[in-house]
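User: My collaborator and I are trying to settle a disagreement about how two of our proteins should look. Neither of us wants to argue from intuition anymore, so we agreed to look at predicted structures for both before our next call. Could you fold the first one, then the second, and keep them clearly separated?

Assistant: That sounds like a sensible way to settle it. I'll keep them separate. The first protein:
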Amino acid sequence: MISVEAARPNERDHIQRISGKVFSDLGEFQNLPHRVFSVQGVQTFLARCNAEVIGFAMLGFFPWNQGSDEVADGWVAELLAVAVEPEFQNQGAGDGLWQQANTLIKRMRERRSVYEIQVICPQIAHAALRFFHKRGFVQRDGWVRSYSNGQKAVRLVKPIEGLPFF
């Protein structure tokens, strides 16, 4: 049985362990989730199978910065990292993590104007790209960057229902 809940401050080591497995081919990025675990404005969720932590998702909210005065007070929800242990992938942990993140985004929308959800994803992570495309994310523009090891990354966005897509 897979469950998802907010991470507690003493659960940082799970993030480092899973990041090391899942993001090892992304160079220095594998250390980023561990470093931003306690950053204000970032919420981390853990997926568990029985009592074992098998995955995590990190969600942050950042001021909208798209050069449009009409949405100067807007926010972007960014999935900073989503990772599930390889042996537990395709068993519902990713869905549970996405549902928790989406619930938090909906709650944030009650207080702030959140215009889109974004995620930066390795261009060759085909399973991750399929996961996000199934949930309505699209590659919005020609934005392509590289991780520290040179692997290409793309920006995927999901507009918030009922709001303009910039």
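The second protein, kept apart from the first:
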Amino acid sequence: MLVFWKPRLVFLANSRTGSTSIEMALESLANVAIARPPELKHTDARSYRSHLAPFLSGAAEGARFETVAVIREPLDWLASWYRERHPDEDENPAAAGDFEGFVEAFLADGSDRPLGIESQAAFLTDGAGALCVDHLFRYEEIGQLVEFLEDRLGCEITLPRLRASAPAETAISAGLRTRLAGRLAEDRAIWDAARR
């Protein structure tokens, strides 16, 4: 999470959406940068709104800070989690499971955080499903985020490519894709509505 004091802007770091690259590019411009531990780096919009927004507003004599975040197409986002958690098959074939098995395990886990992964919808919304982020950009059109930040921060921004996962096969059957789409329907609706 990054806080920019004068522009009254907070970047919320949604996991697997290029947040490390964004933070690396912008950390020197931020007045506050929370990079560790991951639980604080990836503070969700609801927690930010409940705990940090009142603190920042109080410190800024009542000024409101706007929030900005990124959302990734849901299937690609889950594939990124898979690639992050499964080593390259060439390096360790015994440790790598296929993506279909990963998706099956994700769907079978009935918890709010299947396989320990918080959904993008949970990260970006309040308890009732309302979006809690002022400016939401698609990962797939990251250039629009860069233009927005350049305008708000008054400087040119170049994003480094960091923490890119190793390539892996992430094809799944049509039936499994349909089931996964049902599980990630809220994420899809938010991604569909995000800036293009």
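Some points you might bring to the call about the second protein. Strands lie at 2-4, 9-11, 32-33, 66-71, 135-138. The radius of gyration is 18 Å.
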